[in-house]
Amino acid sequence: MQGPFDQILDFLISTLFGIYIILLLLRLIFGLVRADFFNPISQTIVQLTNPPLLLLRRVIPSLGRLDLAAVVLILLLKFIELWLRLMVLGIDIAPGLVLIASIREILVTLVWILIISLVIEVVMSWLQAGGARGGNPVARLVSDVNRPILGPLRRALPNTGAIDFSPMLALIGLYIVLIIVRSL
Fold first, then answer.
1. What is the C-alpha separation between 73 and 24, in angstroms, rounded?
2. How far apart are CA 34 and CA 5, in angstroms?
3. Which helix (H) or strand (E) holds 124?
4. Closest by alpha carbon to 184, among 87, 100, 64, 60?
5. How high is the pLDDT of residue 129?
6. Residue 125 confidence class, pLDDT cut points 50, 70, 90
7. Which helix (H) or strand (E) holds 89?
8. How many whole angstroms separate alpha carbon 88 and alpha carbon 82?
9. Which residues contact 10 (CB under 8 A, 6 or more apart)?
10. Per-residue confidence at 59, pLDDT binned at 50, 70, 90?
11. DSSP string, 1-53
């Protein structure tokens, strides 16, 4: 049974590692989709994630648009997070199982980032004049992130006029992916 101190420590480890891993995943996604790195939000994420990535890039090169240094750092941080949380809980698990759990949790987080970005784009399209490519930096970034998912769906679906069904179809697909990843 966990005491309050253990719960607080578990929460702090999960939150601090989780926030930084999400920032690294966003940076990785922005690079893959060629999002605007001059966007103020992108610039903030770059400044927060640059120090460890610059060190890792000295030994880990990129593979095309895929920043392998970011991938390694994300995996390493998730592994350390899960290992620390298990230590707090008093659970001893083989490192291989922690690595597998780390990969699974990273994939779940990645899918949730995509789901949330789709929801943000849909809500902003309802509220913002000029569509998602207006002057709002958040709208521009989520549009960049969602373009590889929504673009092919928009081309494949028939034009229904004012209602775009591609985000709904993308969300259904992402939830199916989420179910599959969580079952692994």
1. 8
2. 43
3. helix 95-127
4. 100
5. 59
6. confident
7. helix 68-89
8. 10
9. 2, 85, 88, 89
10. very high
11. ---HHHHHHHHHHHHHHHHHHHHHHHHHHHHHHT--TTSHHHHHHHHHHHHHH
Chain length of the chain: 184
Contacts with 150 (C-beta within 8 Å, 6 or more apart), sequence order: 118, 166, 167, 170
pTM beyond 0.90: yes
pLDDT of residue 3: 87
**Cα 95 from Cα 175, distance rounded (Å):** 29
Cα–Cα nearest to 117, from 176, 35, 180, 20: 35
Residue 63: HSE in the Cβ half-sphere, 13 Å Cα cutoff:
7
pLDDT at 164: 86
pLDDT in tens, 71-96: 999 999 999 999 999 999 899 999 99
The token duo for 140 is: 């521009």
Number of domains in the chain: 1
3-class DSSP state for residue 63? strand
Q: Which domain holds residue 150?
A: 4-183
